[in-house]
Amino acid sequence: SNIDYFGLKASDTLNISRDEWNQKFSKQIKEDLSYYLKKYVEDYSTVEKKFIDKLMGYNCDNSKEWRNYKIDFTNNELLVNDIFLKEILFIESEFFEIIDEDVDSDLDIYVMSRWNIRLLNKLFYNQIKREFDCITIFECSSFRYYDNERFEVMFYYTSPLGGKPPESINGVSLEWEEFAINTRVGSTYHDILHSLKNMRRRVEYEKDGLDMARKIDRELEIIRDKDFCNKYKILNLSFNGDEGIINPYQIEKNKIFLLDVNDLALFLYSNRLENNIHLRESDFLNELNGMIEELDLIIRDNQLNKYFKQ
């Protein structure tokens, strides 16, 4: 073999686990992406590159041309410079489906997809003490509606004049907080029961004929309830810097279904965090089955059975 030809021992050559290799490979990819993205923007030849410079927090370009960049929202296009000129209200698209009506407000309103939320959060996070130091920024990550039920929906409010966000929208009270660089999108409220109810609610909207797929960016359902996640620590993965667990129940074509548990266990085993390197695939399968039993108990106790299919 080629290994024998070069006088190498197979045991020495292969003395590295697949998981350690995966971690090093993943880390290298991230470093390479960061390096080449920075190389891509460093000539600052376009407005887009100048905007990326601010978005990523490189802050190498000192001009204000990045403000001429336009961001596409669900309902409209935003010229970044407008943030420095007027009050703006950013509302996640799901809010409109929950209240089932248009928003009555004198403010300029931009409807956010999940992609818009991530982009704004990153831009605010990296520029709140620099380019946006004169801008008032508030955020709200949930509200109560119907029978005092809490909904996880994201709002941002910006003002160049030190204004305050509206206390309510269409009669729905909002609890605002000043944007802080140690916050993460949607981290305020992740109770497992409310997350399951939100899944049910989205399925109900689709069955009622509301085109949710058009208005909401579909993403993997992630459990972020800290107490719940701490009970099943080995199932946690890292998602954009925050840990969470892939919900074994996912939504597709207005139905909630249970993923193949064996496939999910294999995936979690292959992508396990560094402190779980010593664990076996069977450990993840056993933990998954235990978590599903608890989820099913919560589902049954709250009469959600008909929505969650195994």
Question: How would you characterize this protein structure?
Answer:
With 310 residues, the chain is α+β, with helices and mostly antiparallel strands. It has 11 helices and 17 strands. The chain has a 5-stranded mixed sheet with strand order 4-3-8-5-11. It has a 3-stranded antiparallel sheet with strand order 12-14-13. The chain has a 3-stranded mixed sheet with strand order 15-16-17, covered by helices on one side. β1 and β2 (77-79) form a beta hairpin. α10 packs across α11. Mean pLDDT is 82; it is low at 182-189 and 208-217.
Low-pLDDT stretches are 182-189, 208-217
Instruction: Name the helix and strand elements from N-terminus to C-terminus, one letter apiece.
Output: HHHHEEEHEHEEEEEEEHHEHEEEEHHE
Helical stretch count? 11
How many whole angstroms does the radius of gyration measure? 23 Å
Report on the biggest sheet.
5 strands, mixed
| Topology, number of strands | 17
- Strand content range: 15-25%
Arithmetic mean of pLDDT:
82
